[in-house]
Amino acid sequence: MPSPDQNTVPEKSVLIIGGGISGITAAVEAAETGCRVYLVEKLPYLGGQVARINEYFPKLCPPYCGLEINFKRIRNNSGIEVLTSSMVEEISGIPGDFKVRVQTAPEYVTPDCTACGDCAVVCPVETDDPFNHGMTRRKAIALPHELAYPVRFHIDDKVCTKDSCKKCVAACKYDAIHLGANAQTREFKVTTVILSTGWKSYDPENLTEFSWGNSADILTNVMMERLGAPNGPTEGKILKPSDQQPARKIAFVQCAGSRDENHLPYCSAVCCSASLKQAIYFTRQDKENKADIYYIDLRVSGRNEDFLNRVEDNDQIRLIKGKVISVDLDENRPVIEAEDILSGRKIRADYDLVVLATGIVPEIPGIPVTLLDQDGFIIKESLENGFSAGGCCCEPKDVAATVQESTGLVLNVLKGNA
Amino acid sequence: MAESKNIGIFICTGCQIGDAIDTAKLRSIAEQTSSVRHCTEHTFLCSAESRQQITEDIRKHQLDSLVIAACSPRHAVANFAFDKVLTERVNLREGVAWTMEHGNEDTQMAAEDYLRMGIARTETSGLPDPYLLENPVSDILVIGGGISGMQAAIEAASAGCQVLLVEKENDLGGWLNHWHDIIPVSGGKQTNLNFFLQEKMDEIKSLTGIKVLCNTTVSSISGEPGRFSIEVNQQGKITDHRAGSIILANGWKPYDVTRLKELKYSDRQNIITQAELETMAQSGSITKPSDGSPPKNILFIQCAGSRDKEHLPYCSNVCCLTSLKQAQYIRNQHPETNVFIVYKDIRTPGKNEHYYREVQADSRIFFTKGEVTEIADNVDDSMAITVSDNLLGEPIRINADLVVAATGMVPNQSDDLNLQYRKGTGLPEWKYGFPDSHFICFPYETQRTGIYAAGAVRTPQGIQACMEDAAGAVLKAIQCIESVKRGQAVHPRSGDESYPILSLQRCTDCKRCTEECPFGSYDETEKGTPLPNPARCRRCGICMGSCPERIINFEDYSIHAISSMIKSIPIPDEFEEKPRILAFICENDAYPAFDLAAQHRLKISPYVRIIPVRCIGSINTIWLSDALSQGYDGILQIGCKPGEDYQCHFITGSELMEIRSENIQETLQTMMLEPERIQTVFLEIDEYLRIPEIIDDYMETIEEIGPNPFKDM
Lengths: 418, 713
Hints:
The structure holds two protein chains of two kinds. By secondary structure, chain A is an alpha/beta fold. Chain A is built from nine helices and 22 strands. Chain A folds into three domains: 13-105 and 183-198 and 363-414, FAD/NAD(P)-binding domain; 118-171, no CATH class; 202-360, FAD/NAD(P)-binding domain (3-Layer(bba) Sandwich), CATH 3.50.50. In chain A, a hairpin with an 8-residue loop joins strand 6 (126-128) and strand 7. Chain A is globular, with a radius of gyration of 23 Å. Among the domains of chain B are: 1-127, 3-Layer(aba) Sandwich (Rossmann fold), CATH 3.40.50; 140-251 and 412-486, 3-Layer(bba) Sandwich (FAD/NAD(P)-binding domain); 265-409, FAD/NAD(P)-binding domain.
C-alpha cells in the first residue's frame, strides 16, 4: 500500500492510540481487512502490559508467542505504520476527515539500527530497567526488551550523558545513533480513531495497611510476573528480592485496592485468575513451595473454571476466604493478619513473599475527546463521530475479552463515520 | 516451479558476520553455481542505499530470485521485500555469527552450508500464483436470530454487506422474546428490554442489506470462503443461496434442570429456573406456581449445574448478575418478600461490582455463601433448604416458598451448520460443546475457515458481550472475504499467497491428507480422492507432511525444495569426526526462540543445520529418510507444545508429529538405525535458555550411538 501524502484522507483509515494488545489487535485486524492504520504508542515498543506478563491464564503459555505472531502480521503488512515513543497532540477536523498531529520523541536511534548491541556494550551508564519494574538495571542505551518491536535500541535520555560521552555513537557501525536528534511532529489524515490506551497498576503507595515500600519482599502482582519470567530478573526462579534466597511460602492478597470504596470501588476482573496462575507457576518450581491465596470471592470466568479446579486440587495451594487486614513486618519478614471467614478464626502467618493483587487503573489518552465514568474509565457508549474505544481503558478485562472487543471495534473503520 | 532461475546473492558482512566467517569463500560457492547471475557483499545490507543497489541489480541482471545472506528472516522484512521477486533468507547473523565461535573452521562450514541450502531452496521454488476465485461472493450468512445474530446482521449490513439472516423460530429475538428485563450495564444506553428489542427489530427492517428468513434452518453448506453454497429449509421449502462467509450465532439453552436430581424439579411445583422466572415476570406477576399466590420467601440457588464436574464444569458467567437483576425486580414487585441468594462466589467482574453493591444495599436481599445440601418439603407448599459450608460454620435452614435454580448456559450444537465437509458437519469442539480456537489470543479463529462463532455458542456471555462478540465475528467474516478476494490466507499465515497444489494423477486415495488437515479443507470423492478447497486452507503444510506419495506441494515450500536443501551440503565422513544434525524448526515459536538465544549470544553447536518449517506437522517422512541416507547423524524436530493447552498454531500439527513419530521409529528399525536418530522436542518461545542444552544433549546421544552407518554409502 503506498504511503498517502499528509493532505489526503485514505479511504478507511484509522488512528489507533495505544499499542498494547488491544491496539495491536485492532491494527492487524484492520490492516488485513484493507484499512490503512497508524498505530501510535507512547513507549518505545509495542505490547504494553502483555509484553511483561510471564504466562497467560488459563493455558500457562507465554504471551511472547501471541505477540510474535502479531508482530509478524505487522511486519508483513505495509498498510500499518507504527509510531512508537509518540503521543497524539491534536485531532482536528470532522469524522471521515480527521487531521492528526503526532509528536515523536527525539529519535536518538534511527531505523538504521540493526540491534547488533555494540552500543550497549560500550555504554557506561546504568539505570533501573522499567521493563522489570526497576528490579534490574539496564544500560542507558538498550533494547527495551528481548522481543521489542520495532527491533531497535532505545536511549533513556533522562540518564544518558549524551555529548559528554558519545561512546555509543563511536561504536555504532551503521551511523544509527544521533544524539542531537529533536522531537518530530507529523501530521496525517484518517477517517476514524480508536482509543486503546489500556491500563496501569493501582499505585501500591496508597496501600499503607500493607506496608508497601517497607520490604523488598512485598511485591505487586505485575512485579511477580517479571519475577516468574524466564527473561526476568532471576531467569524465572522465584527468589526473595531481599536476599535472593528461594521463596518457599507466598501469600497472595486479593483485592489489594479493588472492591474497596477507599481505593478502587470496582472489581479489576483479572486479579483472581492472575494469582491462581502465579500460585501455579510458583508451586511448580518446587514440591516444598506453598502458596496461600486470601480472597473475598474467587472470580474466574467461563471456561477458566477448569483452571480454578486445578488449583483446588493442588495441595501446595490453599484458598482462604478472608480479607487481609494488614501486612506487617516481624524482623523484616512479612506477616499477614487476616480473618478466615469460613472458620471464623483470625489468622496470623508469616511469609517469604507477599504478593499484592493490585488492580487495574485506566490509562486515558491526553486528548479531550472522552467522557469518563465515576471510576475514570472511558464511557465507550458516549463516543461517536468517528471515535471508538476498547480494552482496559473502558473496563477491566482479560486478554481474551480485550482481543474479542478490539476485533469488533474495527467495524467502525469499515462503516466510515458511524 | 520455475524452470531456469536468475539468482542474485547478496551477502551482508555487518553485525559481526564478516568477523565470524570468510565471506569470500561464500562468494566463490555462489559463483560456482550456474543459476547465480550476480553475487555481491555489503557491510550494511539493510540500509536504504543497499536496497537501492539491490533494486538496480535486479533490473540490471534481470534477477527473478534473491538469496539474502544476512540476518534472521524475522528482521528487516520490508527492506528485502521486492515485488515479483522470490526472496530466500539465509540466516548468517543469528544462525552463525551470533551463536558460533568466530573464525572457526566449523563455523565457516556452517555458513557455507547455509548458503548452499538457501541456493538449493531458491532454485527449486517459485513465486506463488494466488488462488483467485471467479466472482467471489461477499454476502454473509448469519445463522440464528437471537441477540448475537441480529446484532451480527446489523453490523454487517451497516458495513455495507448483504446479509442472509436465518432463524429457526417464528420470529427474531431468541431468548429476548421471553425475557423481562436487561441486566443494567454501566454505560448501557437502553435498559428496557421491550424498547431494546424493538430498536433492534427496527434497525434490521431499516437496513436494506438484510434478508430475514424465519422458520428456517440450514440444511446444507458446502464450498469454501468466497463461494459457500447454502441450502435452507423454510418449512419444507428448499432454497439455495450463496455466501462468502458465515457467522454461527445459534445461541444456547438452559441446562436441563431435571438432571439436578436432588432438586426434584418435576415433583416440586415451586422450584423454577431463572429462565422460567424471567418469562413469568414478563407475563405479569411473579407468583407461586402451586397456587398463584405471591411468594413470601424466594431462594436462589446459584451454580445450579454450573461449576459442577457432574454437570457443567464451567461458569456460565451471567447467572450471578441475572439473579441480582431478578432479586431486584422481585423486590420492586413484592416489597414484603425476602430474597435469599445462595452462592459459591458472587461473580460480578469489572464495573458490575457497582451493581452488586446496589443490590446488597437492599435489606431484604440476603446473600449466603454455601452449598444447598438438602431440600425438604414442608407441610404447606414451601420448602426447607439446608445450606452447609456457610460463613456461620453451622448448617442453616431457610424456608422458602419459591426456589429459583440458576441453571447455566449450554451452547447449541454447531452441527446446525450441516457442513457437507469430509470432516464433519460442525465446528470442532474445544470442550463442553464450545468451538475450539486459540481462545486467548485469537478467539474467533475456529478450525473452519470463513465460519465464525459469535455469542453464547462461542462462550457463555450476556447480552452486551454477545453484541460485542457479534461485531468481532462480522469483522473476521468480512476480512476473510477480503483475503479470499486477494488470494491470500487468513490467520495465522495472513497474506500468504501460496496454497497446496496436488498432482492427483499419482494419488493413491490413501486419504491421509483429508483426514489430517486440521481445518477440514479437503473433501473427498467416493473413491477417496482428495477434493481441495484452497480458500479453506491455512497453508500449514500438514497435508504435505502427511502425503506418502509426496504429491502435495506449495510453490515456495515443497517436498523437492526441502529435499534439495538437505542434499545440497557435503557431509563429512566419519573419520573427520564432524557429525551433522539436521534440525527442523517450527517457524512460529521455535525459530524466534533460536533468534532470542542468538540475541543473548548463547552458543549453539556448529554441527547443526537448521531448516525452518511452517509447522512440524508439515515434515514429510521422505525428508527424514533423505537426510539419513545422506549421512546426517541425527534429526531434531522442534515444534510447539501439543496437548490440551496446545500452542501449535495449526492446532494438531505437533500432535500429529507425535503420532507419526511412532511410524517413523518403525521405519528406523527396519533401516537398522537406532531410534535416537530422530527426536522430537517441544519448545516454547521463551524457553530459549534451554536451546544449547537441548542441542548438546542430543549431540551427546548421537556421540554415544556413533556415526550414521549410511555415511559415505
